[in-house]
Amino acid sequence: MTATDDRVLEVLADANPHPRGGIPRASQDPRAQAMLAEILAQPVAEPPFRRRRHEGARIGIRVLAPVLSLAVVLAVTAVLLHAGSGRHSVASGGTADEVVLRLQPTPGVPRVTNAAVNEEIQILGARMKLLGSAPVRFSRAGDEIVVHSREIAASPLARSELTRDPQVTFTDWEQNVIAPDGRTVASLLLRGNRQAEIISQGHGGLGHGGLAGTADAGALPLYAAVRLASRQPARAAAVTQTRRGPESFAFAPAASLRCRASSTPCWLAGPSASPAAAASAARRAGAARPLVLTVPQGTTIVRASDPAAALRPDYPDPSARYYVMRDDAALTGLELRRVSASTDSAGQPDVGASLTAAGARAFQALTAEIARRGTSLRLAAAPVYQHFAIVIDGALATVPLLNYDEYPDGVVASSGIQIDGDFSQARATQLAALLRLRTLPLRATIVPG
Amino acid sequence: MDEKSRRGNFEKLFAEHYVDVRGYVLRRSGTEARSSVEDAVAETFLVAWRRLDDIGADPLPWLLGVARRVLANQRRGDQRRLALADRLRGTTPPHQVLELAPGLSDRLRAGLLALSPREREALLLVAWEGLSPDRAARATGCSAAAFRVRLHRARRHLAGHLETAGEQAGGARPSADWPTREETTR
Predict the structure, then answer these.
(1) DSSP-assigned beta bridge partners for residue A144
(2) Are A130 and A430 in contact (CB under 8 A)?
(3) What is the distance between the alpha carbons of residues A241 and A262, in angstroms, rounded to a whole number?
(4) What is the spatial distance between Cα B20 and Cα B26, in angstroms, rounded to a whole number?
(5) CA distance A173 to A170
(6) Do B49 and A39 touch (CB under 8 A)?
(7) Could you tell me how many CB contacts below 8 A there are between chain A and chain B?
(8) Contacts for A376 with CB less than 8 Å, ≥ 6 apart
């Protein structure tokens, strides 16, 4: 609801000619008491309708046709009304036939515009189609959209998909990933820092690209990653960030009762919006004195790429590994169009996508910067391939390398891109499906009924 | 339901919603003639008494829906009587059966009357009767989705009407507390 909408209702409410407080209650109004007594004296049953008998037995076709037509029209109307009337049996989020979503701005889309709402509807339609739903009708009412589908209204999975906000971002890997000493990997590569080389090139060392971003290429346990992130300076808000404000995590001390099996502090709660919220959640989980760390705005924790794991952080899992990155997306899933799994010329599964014009420009700028850095590193040392990362929902989906010999000026993406990543067919298909869902331009929440 | 519990349930319903139904009728009546208001309120509760078993867990939308139809019937009857009287006098009908209580500013009244009856009713159910959009949808007998669309359009149309009225009056705002166009697009 916009300011204008609110104002209209306020102006009208102020002009109410008979405010509720000015009308006497039934118990205080003698007219009401008389009225009640009169009604209670009335018989309950209404007078029966009089049925007219047809004096003539024959009903000609000229009479029958309009009667039948009327009956058909009434029946169809009744069915439509029944279907459209909405039964109010669903506890929240509209009726049994529909789900009402309220749209709110996001850092990247600061206003609810027509274009953003249309984009939102298109993505939600694609999500529902992927779930196997029949084509869904959407209608818009200001900053709300209504999803007209009994099937979706009845499905908890579909309802959660309507509001799920997968963050898909493309980001410069070496420029943003943070080495254990707190500096970016890109800034350390020229100095021959071994940790930075492992994070950039994978565990096999220089020249063995393809393993960057995996758990055994310099990733950290959650506590170590959060501690490293908490020491980063807070950065000013920018539209390229995926998160506003800090986020706090609470841990149980190593070897404490809650954390017996672990040599490092283990996760209890978070990410929360404040240290107090994380501590409170940890205390509810039974920890008397939790360790609370706060990751400032502009820094983020991402789960290492793991083909065997789901594409999301799994904080309670002590075996999961994480990287610390600057929160600085070069482009987001909003710029993607027509994503599909395919195979390259060698028969290797890959993911193809086309980009919007703005997305193609951003992707070329991103890859040109990566190529420029790769070229300068090559001059200084052995070939050092550089990468960009695709992050989905806080997990590294893949960290593809860029061949700067082939693309010294970046990838001209106006006709689409192909992403290789040593994918299995299943992983390529999964990645394509996730990318296809793209980022919702506006945050959607279900309006309680 | 036995007779005693039926009476008890109705008395409770009447006590809880008399103010709401009377207020609704007063706000939607162009006249404050006591007899018309009394008749419409009594007729609404008489229908409720006869159909007590059909009323769901949330009776107010149902009651307001009945009151709306009762008032519509009253208006049709009034219009027929007035039209007949005018024909007998040989004059063009000067009368209009109003659907809004006196006491509104001319501009707001004009703005509300410029809306379609459905849009006006959607707006007033929310603004005057204080119903949520879902409850108001039940009062009007349409789906929640249709109601929300209708309500949104009504708000837009009324806001546009009030702005236009303000500009035609020399650029002044429709009322002292009406926001300027710049404020509304922020």
Answers:
(1) A102, A141
(2) no
(3) 33
(4) 10
(5) 9
(6) yes
(7) 154
(8) none
Q: Which of B100, B142, B144 sits opposite A94 (nearest CB)?
A: B144
Residue ranges per structural domain of chain B:
1-99, 100-186
What is the share, in percent, of chain A residues with pLDDT greater than 90? 25
Name the residue of chain B whose CA is nearest to A5's CA.
Answer: B155
ipTM, interface predicted TM-score of the complex: 0.80
Residue of B nearest to A98 (CA): B145
What's the CATH architecture for B100-186? Orthogonal Bundle (1.10)
Q: Model pTM?
A: 0.52
Mean pLDDT of A307-330: 87
How far is the alpha carbon of B85 from chain A, nearest alpha carbon, in Å?
30
Residues in A closer than 8 angstroms to B50, CB to CB, are 42, 44-46
Give the residue from chain A lying closest to B105, CA to CA: A15
User: Torsion angle, CA of A286/A290/A295/A297, rounded to 10 degrees?
Assistant: 70
According to the model, what pLDDT value does residue A333 have? 84
CB-CB under 8 Å, A142 with B42: no
Using CB atoms, pick whichever of B18, B38, B46 lies closest to residue A26: B18
Cβ neighbourhood burial of A67 (10 Å; 0-12, 13-18, 19+): exposed
Summarised one tens digit per residue, pLDDT across range B107-129 is: 888 888 888 888 899 999 999 99
Chain B hits for A35, CB-CB cut-off 8 Å, are: 38, 41-42, 45
A448 or A304, which is more confident? A304
Q: Please report which confidence band the pLDDT of residue A292 belongs to, taking 50, 70 and 90 as the band edges.
A: very high
Roughly how many angstroms between the first and final C-alpha of chain A, as a whole number?
16
| Residues of A in Cβ contact (< 8 Å) with B19 | 20, 23-26
CA distance A86 to chain B (A): 5
Contacts of A181 (CB under 8 A, 6+ apart): A188, A193, A195
In Å, what is the CA distance from A287 to each residue of A146, A224, A253, A282, B58?
43, 20, 9, 6, 45
Distance CA A426, CA A438 (A): 19
Parallel, antiparallel or unpaired: strands A266-272 and A299-303: unpaired
User: Three-state DSSP class for A29?
Assistant: coil
Q: A367-388: per-residue pLDDT in tens? A: 999 999 988 887 665 667 789 9
Domain B1-99, classified CATH 1.10.1740.10, yes or no: yes
Q: Which token pair is A354?
A: 């086309």
